[in-house]
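Entry:
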Amino acid sequence: MKLEKLEQDCYYHIYNRGINGGPIFRSDENKRYFLRLIKKHLSDKVSILAYCLMDNHYHMAIQVIQEEQKVTQSFSNLFNAYAKAYNKMHNRTGSLFEKHFKRIKIQDTKYLRNLIIYINTNPEYHGVNNDYKKFEYSSYQTTIVDSNDAVLMPIAKEEVINLFEDIENFEYLHQQKMNLNLDLNALDLD
């Protein structure tokens, strides 16, 4: 599979899962550490519009704001640093993630809005949490709160709200779970 280049100013769906569908997060501590690494390695390279960390996979909707080589290397550094720490913490060796992180270039605004909804409602979709609004490791709460106090991961909140016209429409469309036109089978994350 040829990997999509991460072109500057373009939007992407970034995702991956654990090797053989295994866990990549075993605790809240693992998830918080992964989010800290995202801040460290990506904060000046991409804008994050949405994210969700599940036990065996993650999703991000991003916009690339730096040149491709820097962004690709930063993602590599993030995943390598996390895998090394995870392996040490859990006394394991070998690959943690499937071969390469997957990326899909987003070509239109409707798809991007649907993707953000899918990412934010992923805990409910997978039956992990019956109320996606209360799931701690997704960007939904970060988007709807007034301040960024105690936020684990800053997101491009203003840009996200503008994509949905306003916060009320953002919440409404999440509640309706919009007719997602994503090819969920292609994600192969179950």
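Residues 114 and 178 are 7 Å apart (CA to CA).
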